[in-house]
Write a structure and sequence with these properties.
11% of the residues lie in helices and 36% in strands. The protein is mainly beta.
Length: 148
């Protein structure tokens, strides 16, 4: 049993294999989609944390999100993603839709100098920057247990 109480493997790979992409592990702020800066959400900028066990969790602009991820070569895909169900103001909702669209589509990733670029199959492009190590990117109560 995992220490977080889950009995089942939590990777996007049903065989239970752990994603091998340590450069991706950690928290990333989603700063730009299709060349446009994203507005801060209700609790600051959107962010995603990629855990080494294949879990991804974060904040999309209004709601918390949680799901699975897998990297094959340079293709990043996401398994089922769940989100809390709060409503928000128009700017935060627009930010959230952009972030959730990325989680739905996945795509080809490239990383350079602390910046991650994700290009979806539909031609969208997102820019994520590594969050400071101080933990400023995520609210204090955020984490893999934030969604119940």
């Amino acid at each position: 049993m995992r220490d977080d109480g889950h009995d089942e493997p939590t990777t996007a790979d049903p065989t239970g294999a752990v994603p091998d992409a340590p450069w991706l592990h950690g928290t990333w702020r989603v700063v730009r989609v299709d060349g446009t800066d994203l507005a801060d959400g209700l609790q600051g900028p959107p962010w995603l944390t990629f855990d080494g066990d294949g879990m991804v969790f974060g904040y999309a602009g209004v709601n918390r999100v949680r799901g699975t991820w897998r990297l094959e070569g340079s293709t990043l895909s996401f398994g089922p993603v769940v989100a809390t169900l709060m409503a928000g103001p128009p700017e935060a909702t627009t930010t959230e839709r952009a972030v959730l669209g990325l989680l739905q589509d996945g795509g080809v990733v490239a990383s350079q100098d602390g910046t991650l670029t994700l290009r979806t199959p539909g031609g969208r492009a997102a820019e994520l920057v590594r969050a400071p190590a101080s933990g400023d990117a995520a609210p204090v109560d955020a984490g893999p247990h934030a969604l119940h």
